[in-house]
Amino acid sequence: MAEHAMERPLRPGDRAPNVVLDAINHGGKVSIEDFRGQSGVLVGLFRGLQCPFCRRHIAASAELASSLHAKGIDSLTVVNTPIERARLYFRYHPLPGVIAASDPDSIAHRAFGLPNLQFTEHEDAWPYKVSIPTVMSMRMEMPGELPEPMNPFDASTYLNTLDGYEKTPADEKTEERTGGQLVGEFLLDRNGIVRWSFTEVDGEGSNMFAIPRAEELMSAASQLPH
Q1: Span of the secretion signal (predicted)?
Q2: Calpha distance 157→81 (Å, rounded)
Q3: Which of 73, 92, 121, 159 is the most buried (most CB within 10 A)?
Q4: Is residue 202 part of a domain?
Q5: Cβ(77)–Cβ(109) below 8 Å
Q6: With the CA atoms of 6, 12, 14 and 18 taken in that order, what torsion angle do they form, in degrees rounded to the nearest 10?
Q7: Distance (Å, rounded) from C-alpha 163 to C-alpha 40?
Q8: Which residues of 27-52 are buried (b: 16+ CB within 10 A; e: fewer)?
């Protein structure tokens, strides 16, 4: 199990570390080593399921699972939500063709170089600290879901209400522990080498809550050797 933290997100050309996590949609464990020498894998590292932006990102990624599988690439989705809460959620919101894993201690996030952003009163030091005024100045534009541009905190509350997502004590604890966790996706070849990535670290915050373009990911996937 990888315990060390990368100082930056993994980039194309880096070798992915091994991490071993609890599998959500089947018993036992799942690890990066499971795919090495067998298939490429898209590793998605997300905040807890209490985050509506992550739920949408996960759903968008899952929509590509069958197309990726046709290219010999598996999909692994990792969430910070504890295993039992995650299993309950995915029982009602299954991810066909996707392997899901629980990582409440952010082991994989740290190993892949994704920091847990701290919210401060006034200090900004991206990607480790961001001030509340800076967050409040952001505007989420999601036509068809948000009635108007909103700051991320208000948008999150609105979307959870829209989705009918009721936070449990487990969700509250996850949010307290990893509410600022930055997320990312990493496309690994069958040798465990990163060939494409998208993270919230990049862009000095402009990638926050964004979803990568499907065309960009699928183009990278098409270049992986079978």
Answers
A1: none
A2: 18
A3: 73
A4: yes
A5: no
A6: 70
A7: 33
A8: eeebbbebbbeebbbbbbbbbbbbbb
Q: Which amino acid is at 193?
A: I
Show the tokens assigned to 61: 């990624």
Q: Which two tokens stand for residue 146?
A: 């948000």
> How many other C-beta atoms can be found within 10 angstroms of the C-beta atom of residue 136?
12
- Tally of domains in the chain: 1
- Residues 139-198 have pLDDT tens digits of 999 999 999 999 999 999 999 999 999 999 999 999 999 989 999 999 999 999 999 999
Q: How many CA atoms lie within 13 A of 209 on its CB side?
A: 18
Query: Does any domain span residue 11?
Result: no
- The pair of three-digit structure tokens given for residue 134, joined into one six-digit string: 């800076």
CATH assignment of the domain containing 100: 3.40.30.10
Q: Which amino acid is at 77?
A: T
pTM of the model: 0.94
SS3 168: coil
Structural domain range at position 106: 20-115+182-222
Q: Is 192 inside any structural domain?
A: yes
